[in-house]
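Q: I'm building a small set of examples for a reading group on sequence design. Run inverse folding on the following structure and report the sequence directly after it, with nothing in between.
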C-alpha cells in the first residue's frame, strides 16, 4: 500500500477539527469525506467483497482482490477507523424466527417541534419490534419497519406500543406480501478518473 493511504489516516487524526467545537457526527462525516477523496479501486473492491461476505478471512479477501495480506489488512483497518465500514453483522431469516409479518408504517407527528421529534425517536429506540426508523421528507415524518409473528400480534403491538409512542398525530400501515429484493448493500461508487 502506498504512502498516500497511510497519509489519509494521518490527515484524519491531525485534521484541524476542534473536538470541543464540532459534534461527533460532524467529525465522523469529515473523516469519511477525507477517506472517500483518497479511496481507489482497491478500496472499492474490498468494500464490495466484504458486503458480499463479511466473514472473509484477511487471506481470502486479499486473494479475491489480488493484494497481499498485509496491505489488505491495513486498508480494511483504515476503512473501519475512518467509519466507511461501520461494522459486521449476520443476516437473519425473520421467517425462521417466527416473525413472517413485515409492516411499513408511515407516521405523521402532531407537532414537528424539536422536542416532539426527540421524544418520539426516544420511544422508537425503546421499542424492539421497530427494527428500522427513517426521518422522511414529504407529508409523513417517519417510516418505520416492524416485524411480528401474526396480524394478531401486530394489532397487539399497535394497541400497546405504537399508540403509546409520544407525539403521534396519525399513522398508516402497509403490509409486505412479497420480498422482491432485500439487503443492505451500498451500490458501487466509482472513483473519478480526473
Amino acid at each position: 500500500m502506498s504512502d498516500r493511504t497511510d497519509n489519509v489516516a494521518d490527515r484524519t487524526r491531525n485534521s484541524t477539527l476542534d473536538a470541543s467545537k464540532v459534534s461527533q457526527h460532524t467529525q465522523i462525516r469529515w473523516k469519511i469525506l477525507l477517506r472517500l477523496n483518497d479511496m481507489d479501486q482497491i478500496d472499492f473492491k474490498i468494500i464490495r467483497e466484504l458486503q458480499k461476505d463479511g466473514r472473509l478471512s484477511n487471506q481470502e479477501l486479499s486473494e479475491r482482490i489480488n493484494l497481499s495480506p498485509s496491505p489488505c489488512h491495513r486498508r480494511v483497518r483504515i476503512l473501519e477507523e475512518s467509519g466507511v465500514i461501520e461494522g459486521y453483522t449476520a443476516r437473519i431469516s425473520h421467517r425462521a424466527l417466527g416473525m413472517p409479518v413485515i409492516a411499513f408504517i408511515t407516521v405523521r407527528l402532531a407537532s414537528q417541534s424539536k422536542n416532539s421529534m426527540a421524544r418520539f425517536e426516544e420511544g422508537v429506540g425503546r421499542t424492539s419490534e421497530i427494527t428500522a426508523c427513517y426521518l422522511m421528507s414529504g407529508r409523513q415524518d417517519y417510516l418505520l419497519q416492524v416485524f411480528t409473528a401474526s396480524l394478531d400480534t401486530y394489532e397487539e403491538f399497535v394497541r400497546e406500543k405504537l399508540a403509546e409512542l409520544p407525539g403521534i398525530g396519525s399513522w398508516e400501515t402497509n403490509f409486505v406480501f412479497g420480498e422482491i429484493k432485500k439487503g443492505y448493500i451500498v451500490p458501487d461508487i466509482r472513483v473519478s478518473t480526473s
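Residues 3-81 form a domain with the Arc Repressor Mutant, subunit A fold (CATH 1.10.10.10).
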